Amino acid sequence: GGPGRTWPSGAMFWKFDLHTSSHLDTLLEREDLSLLELLDEEDVLQECKVVNRKLLDFLLQPPHLQAMVAWVTQEPPASGEERLRYKYPSVACEILTSDVPQINDALGADESLLNRLYGFLQSSGSLNPLLASFFSKVMGILINRKTDQLVSFLRKKDDFVDLLLQHIGTSAIMDLLLRLLTCVERPQLRQDVVNWLNEEKIVQRLIEQIHPSKDDNQHSNASQSLCDIIRLSREQMIQVQDSLEPDQLLTTLEKQETIEQLLSNMLEGEQSQSVIVSGIQVLLTLLEPRRPSVDGQLELLAQATLDSSMSSVGALHALRPRLSRFHQLLLEPPELEPLRTTWGNLAPPLGNTRLHVVKLLASALSANDPALTQELLALDVPNTMLDLFFHYMFNNFLHAQVEFCVSAMLSAGPPSDRRGGGAWAHVQLRPPILPRSTGGPRKGYMGHLTRLANALVQNTEKGPNAEQLGQLLKELPGEQQERWEAFVAGPLAETNKKNMVDLVSTHHLHSSSDDEDDRLKEFNFPEEAVLQQAFMDFQMQRMTSAFIDHFGFNDEEFGEQEENTATHPTHPTLPPCTLQPNANLLEICYKDRIQQFDDEDEDEEEGQGSGESDEEDGAWQGSQLARGARRGQPPGVR
Length: 638
Description:
Layout: H1 9-15, H2 21-28, H3 35-39, H4 44-49, H5 53-59, H6 62-73, H7 82-85, H8 87-96, H9 101-109, H10 111-118, H11 129-145, H12 147-155, H13 160-166, H14 171-182, H15 187-199, H16 202-209, H17 216-239, H18 248-253, H19 256-267, H20 273-287, H21 301-311, H22 313-319, H23 323-331, E1 339-341, E2 344-346, H24 351-366, H25 370-378, H26 381-391, H27 396-411, H28 418-433, H29 446-461, H30 466-475, H31 478-499, H32 513-520, H33 527-541, H34 545-549, H35 555-567, H36 576-594, H37 599-609, H38 612-632
Antiparallel strand pairs: 1-2
GO molecular function: protein phosphatase binding; protein phosphatase regulator activity
Organism: Canis lupus dingo
Family: Belongs to the SAPS family.
């Protein structure tokens, strides 16, 4: 081929013999070939994925399959170099999970191989995290591809759930539980798996793992498993509207007695920060609003919101008697070492426990449950949160949660109890009115404080509690009322003005094309005309020199065009005489579109009629006239 010719990538691959299967094929012809020697080859995995028949025949021999399963489930010898210990287990895992149908069939049909895999879970001690990831990956591909066989196999094992929970502190085993819930595609089979796990009391036993007697990894992974079960089950309920029965795992999780068991583990007896944080994460997930996640299901939004409020009833009822314990955690947190920061020492620091407690109480307030809100106000929880807000002045995680809490209280309807309403409104008015400091470095909460002040101003002017808020502002002492009004009119207004961003700059230079753009705005061009103009621009890019010679106008015609444009108002319905030059242009373009295969003949004829230099000059002049004609043509043509 010539210098401009390109070879298809596939043709080049085979033409130059870039594939390497011939080397493996030669190797596989040896009778004394060992599995270790084969796995040392760099391209063994690639050849396996492209279904090399000779290679698969070798790998699928029972002794070789058993050896690969043993590698991914048994601890390698401690002798030898550390970097080579897991070489063969890693390659064996990649081969077993290469998603080759022949390998999947061989693993799923051989119960002895499945028992070898299952034996990994029966280890009495802690699991090797790397081998656990290999094991989970192999089981995951079997759950996905050989679902019936593997689910049937696991259901026969009475100790399967016990072993899962025993090793739940290993992240790969937690992943295996989630694969069992997510990789089963057929709805009826998935429902059977969910019912089976519910009968095994998987939810209650996961909650038992969130207990001070367990280690932190068990707390974290059990909590994450419960959160994933909640989210996956709710999403599944939205996607599968014609489900015959509700998700039993989700139903169990949303029961009040289940949540009370979790709260008891968190707050009674010996307290553990890890247990409290892990338990709060589950409660926050239960209180999350449901959102339809499938396109085109906007009509389900109202139903999803209703279901969300109903599903959180159990959590709110179980939470209400324990609010005083959570409030006590804000006042007397677990002991923490002083924390030295770039701007000073924190003694004690806020801590992850109190931050999660604030998140939980803010989420509970946003649920707009009247009884729970009254209990929080009676405990003076909002003011405690505000004290933390101003004390930890650079903890924006805390500031965001307190802002969310106060904003939710401002926008909620007024409580029925008059005494509760007064305390509630006092809490809302407190943060923006009381000035905190003047001068010095800017506090980290100032941005959130500005937003709280704006929320208060907006709800005072118009909102469900506007009348009550306005009355309370009038009842403030004269000095505080003056300071508040001065703050709103002065610093707050200035800050809002600085934060206002102009989307379009009004300061720009005026160009001569602006006048033309203004005239063009008067016309409403149809979409077809715009597409046609784009095609014409494309065609003009591929014009030949002969075509350019016949294109455009001579000097007299171009001058007449200018005069016509100047003396006649531009309008889409101009007389035919005015549009004649541009009509010729359109006719030429359409002829070029229809007769695009005759370009070579036209080039040859033009080359015979003029010299090379004349042809270049004509092309340049024609292209210049073409651009001038396009700038001068009426907008109705373009």
